[in-house]
């Protein structure tokens, strides 16, 4: 039987082994040999398809019932339902554990139990947290190798009496295939017990349902830990910008799905002399440093990116990051042994094997790749990864961005009037849904701080935590901005070119931070004047620019009842300071109408 020096870990692994009854137990050491051995096993069973056109790359196909995060089966389990809040599914902890123990009983018979020690954050970082995931999926082990610091070093950091987050996972049974077992939807559970820093998942082998270091630990459990320990766990990219003089700026940005988060994290500026470097594309942990500023680390070591829509024309740095040593899931397979997805550069191939293993041609009525097809690649492979991306103390944050997809109301960029107003902008972050979202296309969906699926406690209390952090940071708090690359004209065409030209907005943001750029105060915040933006070399009409910077105050006033209903969801948990910001906006819009 296995033995760990850490007493609590030893006890937990033995308890789970006795419950799940695996045929064998493998302690993951994080080595290349371990990775290669597991890959070979999966190739031999047909679960992994080697890609001839890419070095050390493999394609996996999941079961059609197991293709994405299942928010409907994701639970925040606290003794009080109110502590989970209106944005989370809740279940009584004892009831939920009883149900899941019954599912776990004997679930690993005939399988190997893998024990994955891992660190989220650089091992020597004061912000790093150790987790241990138990799983019966070799696919999960491979992905965790890429996404976290896995193996012996994490065990050494844990020591004999260190604390860790137990992450229990099984793919379950009753559905799927031999290559991709899973459970039917009604038996899938992704359960979090934030009061115990505990994660139990069952029934899914896909993405955030199974790679428990990612959304489960690094956001849902970490957000709860961060509230208790005075730091912040956020669904944010991290980006370094360097101006022509060599001055560095660090930006954290929160964006709902389909709003260009990964593209911004890997932006190639179109302004001469400006340089951008990626520090992370998904999760930022932030804590006040000795100098009182807010410092951020990337909790992960890899990218788990959406493939469809990614191309050399939209994000060449992402494409260059996945040339080798990459796991692809639910992409199409070309006849010459490469992957393909909708939105990739060039013409559609005349023949493919689709993500379900079926013949596909351009005449087919279904996409060749699943819309949520993914790539898992090491961050170190990104051509613009910052040399300081693993700096243990992190980087100091100058600005925080919130961004949504709004066709008509939100201006190109707005600066918050102060920290409280910035929290209000984040709390009211909204996007019009696309085909990538659940719900009708074009429907307004509020997604505060892009954390709605990931906040591990009542979101009203989460807003208060943001306010508390602002109080702690005081005058050293980052400036807060709201951006919108998706404004359209009356014909439905985008007014702003986006992509690399978003660097023009980032330049104004940096110049605002350093006191170099002007702005005009409006009820919704500070807006740049047209002359404040660097538009050299950009072909854009004066009419389009005027529209982009118009706060549309009358249209915004008409949206206020919907906004008020959104805030009302949080009842008496809504901080009075957020309500005060809403009231300030209402009065400002009224004054504007009177004027």
Helix count, DSSP H or I runs of 4 or more residues? 16
Number of strands: 33
CATH topology of the largest domain: Phosphoenolpyruvate Carboxykinase, domain 3
Tell me the Rg in angstroms.
24 Å
Roughly what fraction of the amino acids lie in strands?
15-25%
Describe what this molecule looks like in 3D.
- Strand 11 and strand 12 form a beta hairpin.
- Strands 1, 4, 5, 6, 7, 8, 11 and 12 form an eight-stranded mixed β-sheet that branches. Strands 16-14-15-27-31-28 form a six-stranded mixed β-sheet, sandwiched between helices.
- The chain folds into three domains: 7-46 and 71-229, Phosphoenolpyruvate Carboxykinase, domain 1, CATH 3.40.449; 234-299 and 389-594, Phosphoenolpyruvate Carboxykinase, domain 3 (Alpha-Beta Complex); 303-381, Phosphoenolpyruvate Carboxykinase, domain 2 (Beta Complex), CATH 2.170.8.
- The longest helix has 19 residues, at 576-594.
- Helix 11 crosses helix 16 (576-594) and helix 15 (553-568) packs antiparallel against helix 16.
- It contains 16 helices and 33 strands.
- It has 595 residues and is α+β, with helices and mostly antiparallel strands.
């Amino acid at each position: 039987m296995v033995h760990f020096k850490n007493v609590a870990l030893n006890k937990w692994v033995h308890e789970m082994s006795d419950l799940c009854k695996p045929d064998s137990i493998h302690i993951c050491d994080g080595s290349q040999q371990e990775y290669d051995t597991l890959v070979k096993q999966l190739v031999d069973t047909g679960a992994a398809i080697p890609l001839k056109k890419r070095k050390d790359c493999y394609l996996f196909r999941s079961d059609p019932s197991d293709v994405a995060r299942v928010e409907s089966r994701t639970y925040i389990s606290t003794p009080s339902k109110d502590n989970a809040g209106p944005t989370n599914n809740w279940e009584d902890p004892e009831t939920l554990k009883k149900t899941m123990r019954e599912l776990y009983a004997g679930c690993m018979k005939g399988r190997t139990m893998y024990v994955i020690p891992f660190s989220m954050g650089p091992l020597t970082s004061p912000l790093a947290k150790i987790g241990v995931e138990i799983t019966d999926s070799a696919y999960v082990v491979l992905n965790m190798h890429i996404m976290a610091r896995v193996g012996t070093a994490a065990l050494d950091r844990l020591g004999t009496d260190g604390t860790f987050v137990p992450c229990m996972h099984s793919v379950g049974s009753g559905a799927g295939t031999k290559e991709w077992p899973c459970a039917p939807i009604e038996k899938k559970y992704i359960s979090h017990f934030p009061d115990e820093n505990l994660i139990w998942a069952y029934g899914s082998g896909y993405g955030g349902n199974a790679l428990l270091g990612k959304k489960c630990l690094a956001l849902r459990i970490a957000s709860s830990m961060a509230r208790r320990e005075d730091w912040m766990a956020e669904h944010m990219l991290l980006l370094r910008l360097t101006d022509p003089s060599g001055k560095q700026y660090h930006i954290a940005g929160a964006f709902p799905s389909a709003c260009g988060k990964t593209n911004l994290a890997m932006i190639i500026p179109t302004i001469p002399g400006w340089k951008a470097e990626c520090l992370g594309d998904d999760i930022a942990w932030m804590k006040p440093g000795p100098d009182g500023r807010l410092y951020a680390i990337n909790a992960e070591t890899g990218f788990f990116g959406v493939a469809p829509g990614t191309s050399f024309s939209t994000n060449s740095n992402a494409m260059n990051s996945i040339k080798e040593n990459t796991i692809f899931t639910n992409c199409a397979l070309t006849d010459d042994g490469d992957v393909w997805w909708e939105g990739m550069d060039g013409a559609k191939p005349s023949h493919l094997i689709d993500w379900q293993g079926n013949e596909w041609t351009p005449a087919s009525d279904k996409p060749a790749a699943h819309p949520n097809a993914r790539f898992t690649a090491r961050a170190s492979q990104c051509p613009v990864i910052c040399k300081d991306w693993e700096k243990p103390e992190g980087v100091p944050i100058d600005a925080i961005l919130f961004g949504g997809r709004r066709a008509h109301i939100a201006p190109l960029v707005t600066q918050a009037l102060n920290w409280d107003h910035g929290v209000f902008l984040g709390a009211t972050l909204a996007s019009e849904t696309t085909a990538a979202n659940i719900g009708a296309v074009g429907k307004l969906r509020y997604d505060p701080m892009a954390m709605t699926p990931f906040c591990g406690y009542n979101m009203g209390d989460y807003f208060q935590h943001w306010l508390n952090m602002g109080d702690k940071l005081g005058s050293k708090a980052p400036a807060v901005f709201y951006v919108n690359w998706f404004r359209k004209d009356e014909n439905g065409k985008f007014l702003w070119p986006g992509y690399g030209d978003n660097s023009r907005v980032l330049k104004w943001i940096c110049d605002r931070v350093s006191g170099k750029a002007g702005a005009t105060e409006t009820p919704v915040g500070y807006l740049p004047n047209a002359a404040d933006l660097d538009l050299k070399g950009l072909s854009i009409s004066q009419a389009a620019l005027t529209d982009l910077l118009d706060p549309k105050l009358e249209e915004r006033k008409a949206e206020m009842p919907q906004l008020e209903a959104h805030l009302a969801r949080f009842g008496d948990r809504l901080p009075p300071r957020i309500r005060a910001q809403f009231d300030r906006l209402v009065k400002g819009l009224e004054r504007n109408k009177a004027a």
